[in-house]
Amino acid sequence: MSNKATGLKLFEGEGEVRSLLRDLDWSHSPLGHPATWPHTLTTVVRLMLNSNFPMFVAWGPKLGFLYNDPYRAILGNKHPASLGAPFREIWPEIWHDVGPVVEAALGGKSQYFENFPLTMLRTGRLEQTWFTFSYSPVEGDHGEIEGMYCTTIESTQEVLTRRRQEFQLELADAMRMLESPAEMVGRASRMLGERLNVARVGFCDMQADENTIFLRSDWNRDDVSSIAGQVLTLDDFGLPIANLLRSGRPMIVDDATTDPRTAAHAGAYHAIEVRAVLSLPLVRSGRLVAILFLHDNAPRNWGDEDIDLAREMAERTWAEMERARAQVELRAERDRTQYIINSINEGFAMIAPDWTVTSVNTEGARMLGYSQAVLVGQKLWQLFPEVIGTPREALYRRVHATRVAESIETLFQYRSGVQGWMEVRVYPALDGGITVFYRDITDRKQTERELQEANRRKDEFLAMLAHELRNPLAPIGAAAELMQMVELSGPRLKQTSQVISRQVRHMTGLVDDLLDVSRVTRGLVEIKREPQDIKRIAASAVEQARPLMESRRHHLVVDLAAERAHVLGDENRLVQILANLLNNAAKYTPEGGQVRLHTEVRDNEVLLVVSDNGIGVPPAIQAEIFELFAQAERTSDRAQGGLGLGLALVRSLVDLHGGRVYCESAGEGRGSSFIVHLPRMPEGSLDAGWRTEAPLPAAAHSLDILLVDDNEDAASMLSMVLEAAGHRVVVETESARALARAAGERFDVGMLDIGLPDMNGYELAQRIRQLPGNDGMSLIAVTGYGHDQDREHAVAAGFDHHFVKPVDSRKLIAVLAKR
Q1: Does residue 223 contact residue 274 with C-beta atoms inside 8 Å?
Q2: Average pLDDT per run of 10 along the chain, which is 819 residues long?
């Protein structure tokens, strides 16, 4: 085999990037041909191409650039031209930001950044982005640093969401204390203009004809003048723009002098010092009532953040203006007060200067636990003596004295005894008393706490994930260095390869855990609901957990109830539930400990109990131990590895089966028990067909079968099944040998694995079809892929049937019986 072919074997496998790399003209790449690459670079590239995380490698004096399939989304339209190109030529617009990071990494210092801001050109226009990434140096075969690799996650949406939420909170706080619509517009316009650094922000009121615009007020930067007070018409800016705004759609103009919709009216824009415009119409009851406008005196690419913040500001300000108008009307029109305030979905009360409650709306009375008749006419302090001495009393008296509106968020206990959080806003009333608005914000506070806790757990989980992913890299790297330092053979070569294989399997297991818990928690997993014997489930789970139990010298006690019991569910997932609990017990029980599996059968449910005498679970986390990300807190050493996703997956799967799971523990060092309750099927409801599994049917007639699979174990097992059914089977593990066998012998059936290394199953099927005398041979595809396009590809290649691994033996034998 040529050096070129040997080098390109690195790119064998599926994925767009692998395909492009195989066809790349390496003579023009600063990396040189893969056949000349150092062993370290080959190892890092192989790991990168097999990773599910966005990664790239930059190597050599010009930092030749390679990346994997997940990284394509980050490149945008720079893919695929970036493959093999110099790093600096790919990202010239961000080189001044990432250049120092690259230099530090090439100097031997790993770099890690969270939410690193970059202004990138990847979709035809500059956009602000943020990334969390790590740059790590990579040594060549002689110990010198020749390149680096990077693992990265784009966090743009998370950053924009957080910034938008921060602005929403700031805007809400600013609006809460203002009563005048003019003050609200002024404050909101200034906040938005300063946040986005635009030249001018303002509101336009639409007159009844929906064409005349009154520029009520604006905020402007020092380098432009105010246009407040002007009267214009929509038609002044052209019919396309007028129709756009009347329909309620935003007007986005990056440059008024070049935009075809505005170029003809460039003079009107120039007169008010405008080059870029973002206008958001406010439509109420099908009528255009107002327009929020943002102006800049230079061309500007309006981004998603600009539009989202402007829309939020417009909606919130208009809502607050409506609220302010309503409150002004309430104070001015006392004869209509009660009717209006009863329609408000928050508590409202008016309190006279002598602290007599003069009015309470329906929602307010409900929240306080009294009828309106009981509240109105009573002294505030006599009704609620528990308020005396609290921050609420201080707030009421302060606003009463200073005539300055204030608000607080405070704990509040309802008459029912339930405690919650309440937001209280107090305004001075015209008669010298105060007006109080209050609403229950318990759900919001709880959500805030949950978000904070989830964020904390996420950070801990990401730290644990980084730790767990780095752990396998250490022995892999050491093995690679050893293979470079000395020529290995015999037992040492076998031992080194076993280390690499074992650590790769470990990393694969970590990724599989992440994908599995993601699919289950997002509801993407469907379970097969079939009657399952709980004893059989327990036996399978014990078999899976036994290797870990034996490696840690645990004494496993299995105590299964004598009663016959079935549950309705998915056999594989039920085994997974119990195996996860047994493995969890093994991991957190010191070596030589005791683990017990106990089942209990009740009339309507079956209990599965896994107990241990291990490290126990502190009471503080027993209620949340099944939460995603919570497991990382259980131990600091994490000696057994893993990401702590097992219990979160257990609860999700138990929920899917209509059951429940919980933890009991006397505390740290006192062991723990995990109890699963599953609904029990009445034995009388079971069809007799479920009770025993019929043996595989014998073949009606014997067939000569050519079985081709490079996995010797899989081929051996399947051939034994076919021979047990009465067929004659010839097994080949290489495509070339199988093709030669098919040319020299006659077979009734060919069963071909698709993922063969030297010649895939599709090509092998086509070449077998071309052999003389094989027209009547039935071809069956065996593959790990079961999508519609995979079946179509199989038919196009000449296959008669398509089976997905693991093969259903009964269905296969039934198909062969029809041959």
Answers
A1: no
A2: 61 88 86 88 91 93 93 92 92 93 92 92 85 92 90 90 81 73 80 87 83 86 88 80 85 89 84 89 83 89 83 78 68 60 79 91 85 88 89 91 90 81 91 90 82 67 56 62 64 67 62 62 70 85 81 87 87 85 89 91 91 88 72 41 66 88 88 93 62 54 89 71 85 90 90 86 89 86 74 87 77 84
